[in-house]
Amino acid sequence: MKSFDEMLIPEGDVRDPYARFYEWFREQDADALGEKAGEAEAFFRRTGITFNVYGQEEAAERLIPFDLVPRIMAKAEWDNLAEGIEQRVTALNAFLDDLYHDQEIIKAGIVPERLIAGNEAFLEEMRGFRPPGGVYTHIIGTDIVRCGENEFYVLEDNARTPSGVSYMIENRETMMQMFPELFAQNRVRPVETYPHHLRRSLAAVAPPACEGTPTIAVLTPGIYNSAFFEHAFLADQMGVELIEGSDVAEIDGRIQMRTTEGYKPIDVIYRRVDDAFLDPKVFNPNSVLGIPGIMEVYKNGGITIANAPGTGISDDKAIYSYMPEIVEFYTGDKAKLQNVPTWRCAEDDSLKYVLEHLEELVVKEVHGSGGYGMLVGPTSTREEREIFAEKLKKRPANYIAQPTLALSTVPILVDGGLAPRHVDLRPFVLVSDKVRIIPGGLTRVALQEGSLVVNSSQGGGTKDTWVLRD
Amino acid sequence: MALLGRTANGLFWMFRYIERAENTARLLDAGQRIALTNLSSEPDEWQSVLVSAGVEAAYAAKHQDHDPDTVVDFMLRDRDNPSSVRASLETARTNGRMVRTALSRELWEAVNESWLVIQRRLSSPVTARELPAVIDLVKRQGALIRGTFQTTMLRNEIFDFCNLGAFIERADNTARILDVKYWLLLPEHSQVGSALDNFQWRSILRSVSAHRSYAWEYDGEYRAVNIIDFLMLNRRMPRSLAYCYTVIEESLKYLNRNYEVRHPCFETATEINQRLSDTSVRQTIDGGLHEFIEVFIRDNNRLAQEIGQNYRFYPTA
C-alpha cells in the first residue's frame, strides 16, 4: 500500500510547506541533531511532562517520545480543514441539543432510535435540560487522518474529554528553545494561546448563579491518572484551581471548594472525570472521584460543567457512521469533511462482509478508546482473526469496521537520517460564545516502520505541528 | 486567588520531607564521623542515629544488629523507612507534583530534578567510600531547592505554608538530636576537656552543620552549656529551636494578616516561642533538660496538627 508522504514527492522533490525546513535540515550535522533529541528528552523529564501507564506498577511515569521533525501544513490546507471542523462541531452541539430535547433527527428517520435509547452514553438525566449558553461539548479533539493531497478524513470526534493539548504546547515550547532560527525563517502560527482561549471560552458560559468574574476550576481524578500532568498544566496556565472531588462539597445550592479561608463557590468546572464517576448520587454510587450532588446544582443553574454530561452519545462509534447526514440535517450544507466509510456490524449484510474481509479491515469496539480492543486486519495473524471473528459473531452490535487507510507519512529522525512514518492529527476546538480553533494540533506518529498505530499508550510519539501564515 | 486546603497541606508536607531528607543525610554524616574515629565509649553510635531519626522501631522490625552498612542502607535507600533519603524525596516530589500549580516552574523543576538525580544515585547500594559524596549530593540538591524557593516564589500564603513545613520539621530534628545526646552534655557526665567529650560534642554540632559557626559564636571553646544554648536558644543559629520558632511565628503572623483572622495555632506558636525567650540555658539544665525537650517535641507536634485544622488541610467529617 503506497502512502502519501507530506514532505517528499516521489521524484525526490520537497513539497512547498517544507521547502525552508528541508533546506535548513540539510545543513545540520547528524550527530548534533541526535544530541538535540537527547536534550529534548532530558527537558521533558525534568519538567515532568509524563503520562502514567495503567497496569504497570514500577516506573509508572513514562515519556511520550518526541520527534524533532515538525509536521508542516500550508495556510490553504489548514483553512479548508478548519472550516470543515467548525461545521462539524457546530453540528455536534446541535445534535446533542436535539437528542436531549425534541429528537427531531430520530423523528425524521435519519438516526435510528435504538442507537440512542439503549446507549449507555445517553443520559436520561440530561433530558429537557439546556446547559448555560446552550453548549454541550465545549472542548473537542477531532481526530483527522490524511490519505492524499486533498484527501482528509475524520476518524473520531472526541467530544468527551480529549487529551493531548499540553503536548501540543510543550512540543512547540521545546522546538522554539532548541531551534529558534527555524521560527525566524518560517512564519508559524502560535499555539501557546490555547490556555488563554480556554479560559475565555469557559468564562463565557458561566451559570445563572455566577456573580462577577466567574471562578473556574479543573477537576482531576488525581496524581495517578494517566493525564494528571495535563490537568495540572492547564490549571496552571489558565491560573485557576486544580481540584479533586475531596476538595469540594455541595453547600447552599452551590459547589464550593475548601480553601484555607473557608468554602468558596465554583462557577465553571472543567472536569476531566468521566460521566460515570461525576456524581455518585446520580451515576456510579461507588465513585470517590466525583462530587456528590453536582448534577442537582447543575440543573438548578448553580454551576456549568464542561463538557456537559452525556456528550459521549455524539462521539459514539455507532453514531459516527451517521455523521455526514447529521451535519447536513443541522447545518443545511453538505459535510465539508469526509467520514471514513464504515460498516456497522449490527447490520446483517455488513457483518457478513466484515467477516469475509477481516484481513483488509480495521475492526473497532463501539465504546473502546485508546487503540485497545481493536483488530488491525493487515498486520494480524490468522489466529488473532479467528478469535476476533468469534467475538464479532457473539456481539455484532458492539463493533464497526473500516477499511485500512493508507495514512499519510511524515519523516522522523532516525540514525540514518530521515525515514517516513504514519501520522494522524488531533486539532483542538473550543465551543462557547464562538468557535475557537487552535491552528495545528497534536500530531501523533507511529514510531515503528509500517505501523499504523499512533496511540501514545501503544508506543506512538508526537511531533510539533506547524500551520504556516503564508 | 484562593488557596485550597489540600494544596496548603501538600506544600507543608513537601517542605517537611525536603527538610527531612537533608536531616537524615546529616545524621549519617555525623554517625560515620564518630564510627571512623573509634573513640566512642558508646559502641552503638549507629543506634543513636536511628533513634535521632525516630525510626528505631521500624529498623528493629527488619534487622537484628546495627551493622553500619545495614543502617546506612536503611537510612538512605529503604522505601519501608519513611524517613530514608529516598522515601522522603519521593514523598516530597509526589506532594510537589500534586501542588505543582502552586509552585514556580523553577521550583517544581528543582524538586523534580533532585528526585531524578538522587533516585538514580540510590538505585544501587552505597559503599562506605561513596557515602560522603552521596551525602554531599543530597545537601547540594537541598540547597538548590531552597535557593530556587527563596528567589522565585511570591511572598504570599504559599510561601508561608512551605516555611511552616520546613521549620516545624527542622525544630523537630534539632530537638531529637538534643534528646538523644542530652546526657553527654550534662554536668554529671562530662569530664570537661577530655578528648572524648570534645569529639562527641563536635559531632553533635556537625549533625546540624554548625561546627564552624559555633566557633564564631563562642570563641572556639567547647562547653556543654554553650552547645545547649547554641542549639536551643541562640536566635542567630539557623537550626536552633528559637530560630525555627522565629520563622514559624512570623509565617503565622503573615497568614493572620493575609486572612484577617487570628487562629488558635498562632497562640500556640507564640506561647512556645515566648517560652524559648523566657528561659535561660541554666534554667533548662536545672529544671531538667530531658523534660524540657520532651515537652517541646510534643508541643511542636501539636502545633503542626493545629495548623492543619485551622487552615482546613483535610475535610472535616
UniProtKB/TrEMBL annotation, chain A:
Signal peptide: none
A Pfam cross-reference name: CP_ATPgrasp_2
PANTHER family: BLR5612 PROTEIN, SLL1039 PROTEIN
Domain Circularly permuted ATP-grasp type: 70-446
Descriptive protein name: Circularly permuted type 2 ATP-grasp protein
Coiled coil: none
TrEMBL record, chain B:
Domain DUF403: 3-311
InterPro entries listed in its UniProt record: ATP-dep_Glu-Cys_Ligase-2, DUF403
Name recorded for this polypeptide: DUF403 domain-containing protein
Organism expressing this protein natively: Jiella pacifica
